Each structure stands twice: as structure tokens, then as C-alpha cells.
Amino acid sequence: MPRPGRSAFQHIQVATSRLFGRMLILDDAIQTTERDEYAYHEMLAHLPLITHPAPQRALIIGGGDGGTLEESLKHPLQHVTMVEIDRDVVDVCRRFLPGISGEAFDDPRTHLLIEDGIAYVRASRERFDIILVDSTDPKGPGLALFSPEFYAACAARLTDDGLLVAQSGSLLYQRDLTEMVRRHLGTAFPVVGTYWTPVPAYPGVLWSFSYGSKRHDPRRVTDETITHRLAAIPTRFYGPPTHATALRLPPLP
Amino acid sequence: MPRPGRSAFQHIQVATSRLFGRMLILDDAIQTTERDEYAYHEMLAHLPLITHPAPQRALIIGGGDGGTLEESLKHPLQHVTMVEIDRDVVDVCRRFLPGISGEAFDDPRTHLLIEDGIAYVRASRERFDIILVDSTDPKGPGLALFSPEFYAACAARLTDDGLLVAQSGSLLYQRDLTEMVRRHLGTAFPVVGTYWTPVPAYPGVLWSFSYGSKRHDPRRVTDETITHRLAAIPTRFYGPPTHATALRLPPLP
After folding, report:
1. What keywords does the record list, in alphabetical order (chains A, B) (predicted)?
2. For B172, how many CA atoms within 13 A lie in the half-sphere containing its CB?
3. Mean pLDDT within A212-223
4. What residues of A are in contact with residue B197 (Cβ under 8 Å)?
5. Contacts of A206 in chain B (CB under 8 A)
């Protein structure tokens, strides 16, 4: 039976909070909680999947809890490859936080690979329309996931109109990180930017995602497109207003 | 010359933060800062002023820094009465945080009264289309501003299609307060609800406002109406997407 503890890569803990329910903690940082995971996962997955006019194939780097995978599979994709370095994270989440992934790991479109995402992107010859980088903080094994070299390798894995979104830290407490991600994405993509969502369990609450895109610009997606594409996709937070608000950064000190 | 210190009502401090710039602190609680005040004041003022189809007269209770007044005066109102209990707050803010009020206190439409807002609302025979309650936390002199009796007195001062918005605390750390405000508003108004905005300097970042309305529902305002009404009104954060997003509460633990 999978259980929390020290894996080959990190210290995995599952804690229960009166307010947030069960939460996954990696190396002492809260990664996701039962109560507020949906805003993070919906905004990470749906905003790029709606920005691309007809995505068929997606790649998720990290995201071991399965929340990004579950949201992605709500779209009529043919295929999702998920590359998670730490099998123990997947196993612990499936056992202790099963509501976050739902049936996503059993979906026939899901191809779960337990390996280093950086090595995978360098070696693979697959092409994807969307890449979602659902990483931990930039330290230890996750550090290279924020490098220009990694983003260039991702760009090579994307189709000619593909786009990538990466979590890029706390808008309030990791502003250097957010700016670095956007700058590094700019070395590999012509269209780059940052958007945000509230995630109460994260430091500073306001969380950032940054995108690098070869062609499609999230800022040009119309409300009508979002409404039409979401018709058969249930969401709790993502929609036309939150798409637009996410791209308008809040006041920052 | 006005200066920070102990007024007749509270301890007034002005501090400078490297991140937030100058900030007003009342009884040890941050009230507003130069860098992030605009989201709070825009969302407090514009959402109800746009929800009402043609507001002419507004009443502001509290709001001594003048930010809510300044945003309100961007609308083609005939008259704004502002009732602030503590003249020292107004004077200190005009001297040390002049950018928050701009020219608002000198606008000929502004009628500033230094008196108790509760007594004013009880005694006045004026009628207003909009009431904005820009109060401190519910303690000391501000406590009665959250009572059903005060909201009933406000309802009596509103025109037949008037509405009131009150700041109602931190979505994360003052949930009992937010729920109490909405419940108390429900005793005086048929249409009630809560909306939010990010305010980085406030505890928990996600701040709530609650509305009580006799007729007009902020949830029924269309993007077209907002765009049309805002054509001549410069805003940095409020607009069609933030109006709609504000009314869709984020994940709460």
C-alpha cells in the first residue's frame, strides 16, 4: 500500500486541515488541497486548452495528484501523456486524495509515464498541441523545469500552433520567479504572458501561470468561443469572465 | 498641520512599506496603501454605480481616505455626501496620501460631513440612489455599522430602486462577519449577495463586499452596459470581466 514518507525524490506528507480538508505536502510545501484545488487545476488546464482552437494531444509534466489530468480530459482530446518523476506521489494521491483525479488515471486516453520530465521532453519525438507544466517550486529536481533549455525543448515538442503553460509561483512572494519564467519563455516563444488565479492554500493566495505560445494568444479568445467550447465541460471557476480577469493582473505591491 | 497620532476615535498611523508605498493604519489595521488601493476602491464604488441604471445621488459612510469618493465622482453624479466620523483621518490622508483622493474633496459635488454615520442616516431626510459603507473592522465605533438597524435606516434613505454596498471583511479570515453582513442585509433588502476583489495588503488578500438592493441585481448587468457606461470612466481593474468574476466567489476553504 502506498503511504506518505520519504520517496526517492522528496518528503511526501498528507495532512488534514479543518478548513482545507486533506492536503498534499511535498518537502513541507502545500501542493494541493481538497477544498481549493479546483481553481488551480481549472485555470492551468482550461485556459490554454480553450485558447488552442482544436487540441488533440496534450502533455502534462508533473501534476502527480492528477487534478490537471482530470481537467484536461474533460476536453475531447485524443491523447494525454503525463510524465511524473515520482510514482509515490501518484500512488499516495490516488489513495488519500482520490477526489482530485477522479477517474482520470483510468481513462484510456491517459498515458502515464514515471520518469524525468526533462529527459522525456529532450528524448521524445512525439508532438503535442498543449504542454502543461504542473511543477513544484524551483528547487531540487524541479529547478531545471524553469530553464530556457527546458522551454526550448518543449517548443520543439509542440505543433506549429502549440502552446505551453507553466505554474510560475506566488504573485506576491515569488515575483522574481514569475518574471524569470516569463523571460525564459520569451527565449522560446513569440507570444508570452502571465495570468493568475486565487488559491487560498498557497502563499500569498494569488497564484501565477505563465504561457508561451507559437501563435494563439489567450488574450484574443472571445467570450463566445469560451462559452461554445465549454458547453459540454463542467467547470466551477473557469469561464468567460475568469478567463479575462485572469489575464488582467490584480494590484501588486 | 494634521499629523498621525491618537484622534478622538482611534490611533492613526501612516507607515511606508518598501512594497506597498505609504499606508494608512487605524488601530493597528492596514486600511489602504498607495499601491493596491485602486482595486478595493474601484470595486466598492463602480460595481453598484454601474448596477444602478442612472444614479444621481450617492452617500458614502466612512471612507476618510477619499478613495471611494474619488471613484464615485468619476460617474456623472449630481451630488455625493460623505459622512466620516473622524476629521483627523481625512486631514492626515489629504496630507500624507493625497494620491488616493486626488481632487475629490474639492469637487463641488462633494459634501463632506464630519459626524457619526449612524446618527446621520437615522436623522437625515435626504434620499440617495447609492450608499457605500466604507468602514473599518466591526469594533469600537464601527461596530454598529454592521447591524440590521443600520441597514434598515439606510434602506429608508435609499430611493425605491437604490442599493447599498458595504465592505464585509476578509473572505478567508472573517467569514463569520461576511455571512453576518449578508444575513443582516437580508432583513432590509430583497436582493442581497457578496462579491470579492483581491487586495494584497489586506489579511487573506481576498476581500469581500456585500450588497443589499431594492430592485437592481448586480448579477443581471450585461457586459454591454458596463462597457457603455465606462466609456468615459478610466479604471485600472473594474470592467466587464472583473464585474462578473467578482460575483463568482473563488474557492474558499
Report:
1. Polyamine biosynthesis, Spermidine biosynthesis, Transferase
2. 24
3. 98
4. 250
5. 198, 200, 205
B186 is in an annotated binding site: no
Mean pLDDT of all residues in B152-157? 98
Exactly one of B134, B160, B176, B217 is catalytic; name it.
B134
Distance from C-alpha of A192 to C-alpha of A179, rounded to nearest angstrom:
11
Specify the fold of B34-246. Rossmann fold (3.40.50)
Chain B interface mutation, best of A205, A208, A247, A249, highest count of B Cβ atoms under 10 Å:
A205
Binned at pLDDT 50, 70 and 90, residue A139 comes out as confident
CA distance to partner chain B, nearest, from residue A88 (Å) = 26
How confident is the model at residue A141, as a pLDDT?
Answer: 67
Residue B141 has pLDDT above 70, yes or no: no
Is B134 assigned a catalytic role?
Answer: yes
Q: What ipTM does this complex have?
A: 0.89
Q: Which parts of B24-147 fold into alpha helices (H)?
A: 37-51, 67-73, 87-96, 98-101, 117-123
Closest CA to B222 of B248, B196, B241: B241
Residue with cell 523571460: A183
The rounded distance, in Å, linking the Cα atoms of A158 and A176 is: 27
Chain B residues whose beta carbon lies within 8 Å of the beta carbon of residue A204: 200, 205
**Confidence at residue A51, expressed as pLDDT on a 0 to 100 scale:** 98
> pLDDT-based confidence at B230, cuts 50/70/90?
very high
pTM over 0.95: no
Instruction: Yes or no: say if A137 and A29 are a contact pair by the CB < 8 Å rule.
Output: yes
End-to-end CA distance of chain A: 46
Task: Give the residue-averaged pLDDT of A3-13.
Answer: 93
- Check whether A223 has a pLDDT greater than 90: yes
Neighbour tally for A86: CB within 10 Å: 19
CA distance A99 to A195: 26
DSSP H or E segment with residue A88: helix A87-96
What is the DSSP secondary structure assignment for residue B189, as one 8-state letter?
Answer: -
CATH number of this structure's domain A36-246, picked from the four choices 3.40.50.300, 3.20.20.120, 3.40.50.150, 3.30.470.10: 3.40.50.150
pLDDT in tens, B15-53: 999 989 999 999 999 999 999 999 999 999 999 999 999
Ranges of each domain in chain B: 34-246
Residue A253 has pLDDT above 90, yes or no: no
CB A168 within 8 Å of CB A158: no
